[in-house]
Each structure stands twice: as C-alpha cells, then as structure tokens.
Amino acid sequence: MKKGDLIWAGVLAAVVAFLVTPSTHEVFIEFTGSHPFISGFIKFFILATMGELLAIRIATGDWSIPHGILPRAAIWGFLGMAIVLVFDVFATGVKGALEKGLLPGGDSKFLFAFFVSSLMNLTFAPTMMAFHRVTDTYIDLKHEKGGAVSLGDVVKRIDWNGFISFVLVKTVPLFWIPAHTITFMLPPEYRVLMAAMLSIALGGILAFAKKSAQKAA
Predict the structure, then answer these.
(1) Are 81 and 40 in contact (CB under 8 A)?
(2) Mean pLDDT for the stretch of residues 2-30
(3) Model pLDDT, residue 194
(4) Please, is 99 exposed, middle or buried when counting C-beta atoms within 10 Å of its C-beta (0-12, 13-18, 19+)?
(5) At what angle do helices 69-99 and 188-216 cross, to 10 degrees?
(6) What is d(CA 70, CA 76) in angstroms, rounded to the nearest whole number?
(7) How many C-beta atoms lie closer than 10 Å to residue 90's C-beta?
(8) Which of 13, 164, 174, 207 is the most buried (most CB within 10 A)?
(9) pTM over 0.90
(10) Contact by Cβ (8 Å): 43, 199
(11) Distance between CA 46 and CA 199 in Å, rounded?
(12) SS3 content of the chain, % helix, strand, coil (to 5)
C-alpha cells in the first residue's frame, strides 16, 4: 500500500465520519435542505474528483494529479448542481405520473424508484456523461496544444464508440439504474448521502473508461 492510498482512504474516512456522526450529520442535512445547490457543488467537487483520482490510480498503478484538476473539479461541481435539480424534477414527475395512472405501480415504493431511476438514466444521464466527456477532452487538448481548441477538435478526439458501447450500453443498465433505484427507495433526506457516495463511482467509472480507451488507441 502506497502513501497515496492511505491519504485517499483517510479523506474518504473523514467524509464518511462527518456524514454518520449524529451532530455533523444533522448539520449536513440542514445545510443540504437550506442550500441544495451549494451543497451539490461541494459534494461533487470533492467526491467525484476523488473518484477520478482513484481511476487514475487503478489505470496507471500510481497516484498523480491530472493537469487542470481545478477546472475538472469545478465542472464536477456544476454537474452536482444540475443533479440536485434533476433528482427533484424526475422524482416529482414520476410521482405525478403514478398518481394520474400514466405509469403502473400505484403506491409501490420500488416501482416509483425504478421508474425515476430508469427515466433519469435513459434521458438525462447520457447527455450529462457526454457533456463531461467533452469538457474533460477539451481540458486535455488545451494542455497538449497550449492554444485555441475548437469543438471539432474535441469531437474528433473522443472515442464515441467506447463511450456508447461501455459507458451507455453497459454502465447505465448494469450499474446506474440499479444503484439509483436503491437511492430513490430511501427517504428523501438520505438520497443526497447516497448520491454523494455514488459520485465517487461516477467519477471513477467515467475517468477509468476514458483512460482505458486512450491505452487501447
């Protein structure tokens, strides 16, 4: 085990301790309710970035700070804010559809959670993941070229075949829909905690997929 492993695990342990300790857990819940977008930004800024660092560790066998770490983290924060809104939009929409009989299930908590997760991951998630891939690739090209980078340059660099065949076709049905089904079966005040933990997996899966595609190229 390397020093970086201990540091990363220590940070994660500190985050978990903050979330499960009764006094700080209450602060977290209150802050999330009062400032949902700020909370979402901070949560993804830290945890999804940790996932990306872990992916680099897995892919390369060593810890390293990627170039443009702050812009990457800020983009994760922006996505966290979007996810805060999207969670509520889809949950409210599915609840209304169930009440009107537009979806089967009635009062079933499982079907509510499954429909929210499925609709969200089949519509919003691909757009969000593609956006993240574009911004990540832009940062990479900006570092390599040091000059102007066009959208065409970014689109050409991305391995869209790998993105579709792995990220969309495999991770969405096999991981994200089941994971978010569990998330939306929890009481609303605990969904944000689950999302915080899943953001580590999100960063890890997307970053690892990109690193693997670059190695195969």
Answers:
(1) yes
(2) 89
(3) 81
(4) exposed
(5) 130
(6) 10
(7) 21
(8) 207
(9) no
(10) yes
(11) 9
(12) 85, 0, 15
